[in-house]
């Protein structure tokens, strides 16, 4: 599918069977379709932001809220004490496949170090 980011809009609007684990007026958090760890949640803004390059003075509070909710979900999922990673991929070199800003919250097992 060319416009893969449209699926995220559908998830926000509850037009798919994707399990939403948290939603408020600013963000939506849901299970990744292809989990890379026992816990793999994506956190996205409800209003479209394409990449982390598009975070600016006006919308930076949305980004802060995404981070806050990622940590809240980690606590709710009881992975916060053992630990987790929060990852944002940006564009081609960062491995961003879906052009809709999203944070990956991954945990539930010992994760490989990137560096
Ligand atoms: P990226 O590589 O863009 O940072 O990550 C995209 C993520 O979205 C991947 O982990 C992929 O498994 C997930 N994903 C792709 N399509 C869907 C979908 O239709 N539903 C859900 N829940 N996750 C998706």
TrEMBL record:
It comes from Buchnera aphidicola subsp. Rhopalosiphum padi. This is Histidine triad nucleotide-binding protein. GO terms for molecular function: catalytic activity. Pfam families: HIT (PF01230). InterPro entries: Histidine_triad_CS (IPR019808), Histidine_triad_HIT (IPR001310), HIT-like (IPR011146), HIT-like_sf (IPR036265). Residues 7-115 form the HIT domain. The active site is at residue 102.
């Amino acid at each position: 599918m060319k416009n893969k980011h449209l699926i995220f809009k559908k998830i926000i609007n509850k037009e798919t069977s994707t399990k939403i684990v948290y939603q408020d007026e600013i963000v939506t958090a849901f299970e990744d379709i292809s989990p890379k760890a026992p816990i793999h949640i994506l956190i996205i803004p409800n209003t479209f932001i394409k990449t982390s390059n598009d975070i600016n003075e006006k919308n930076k509070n949305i980004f802060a809220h995404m981070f806050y909710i990622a940590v809240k979900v980690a606590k709710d999922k009881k992975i916060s004490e053992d630990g987790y990673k929060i990852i944002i991929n940006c564009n081609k070199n960062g491995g961003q496949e879906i052009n809709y800003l999203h944070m990956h919250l991954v945990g539930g097992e010992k994760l490989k170090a990137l560096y």
